Amino acid sequence: MNTVISTQDLCKKYGSQYAVDHVNLGIGNGRIIGLIGPNGAGKTTLLKAILGLTTFSGKLKVLGLDPRKDRDELMEQVSFIADVAVLPRWIRVSEAIDLVEGLHTRFSREKCTQLLSKTKIRMDSKVKQLSKGMVAQLHLALVMSIDAKLLVLDEPTLGLDIIYRKTFYTNLLNDYFDEERTIIITTHQVEEIEHILSDLIFIRDGKIVLNSTMEEVQQSYFELMAPPESVDAARQLKPLNERTLFGKHIFLFQGIASALLEPLGEVRTPNVADLFVAVMGED
Amino acid sequence: MNTSWSITKLKVLMRREYWENRGAFRNTPAILGLITVAFMLMGLVIKVRFDNEGYTFREAMRMFALQSEVDRGYQVTQSMMAMSGFFLMVMSVVIFFYLLGSLYDDRKDKSILFWKSLPASDALTITSKLFSAMFVIPLIFWVFLVATEVIMMVIGGLMIWTADQNPWTLAFGPAQPLKAWGLVLAGWITNSFWMLPLYAWLLLVSSKAPRVPMLFAILPPIVLAVLQAWIGFLKTFQLQDNVLGITSKWIANSPAILAGQITGNSDSEHTVSVSLGMPVTSTFDHAPTISNMLDRLFSTHMLMGLVVTAVFLFITLWFRRRASDG
Question: Is the reported ipTM for this assembly greater than 0.90?
Answer without folding.
Answer: no
